[in-house]
Design brief:
Layout: H1 2-41, H2 54-80, H3 84-106
Helix pairs in contact: 2-3
Amino acid sequence: MSKERALRRAEREQEAAATAAARAAEVERQRRRTARKAAWTSWLPKPRKGPGGIIAQRRRTRSTLFVIAVVVVNMLIWLAYPDWAARFLALALSLLITPIVLILMTS
């Protein structure tokens, strides 16, 4: 009987050791993954904790819609005018005017 108990205890200890080894391997993989991600993303700017209220959300929505409208207008001009000068003039004007309009919309 004691041999059976010793055998079962040895099996339990072996299973516990295998589980602990698997857990340690997973922890090591997670640590390496975190280090690899930190190495690749270290040059990216960190996200700022900006204003998160309803006014900021409305401003972001308005700005996004305006930029989408500018892109759509440029696409329509690109399709409507075969002249390259007109296309590039519209693109240049939109690139110059869009930031000004966005600033005026927020103030």
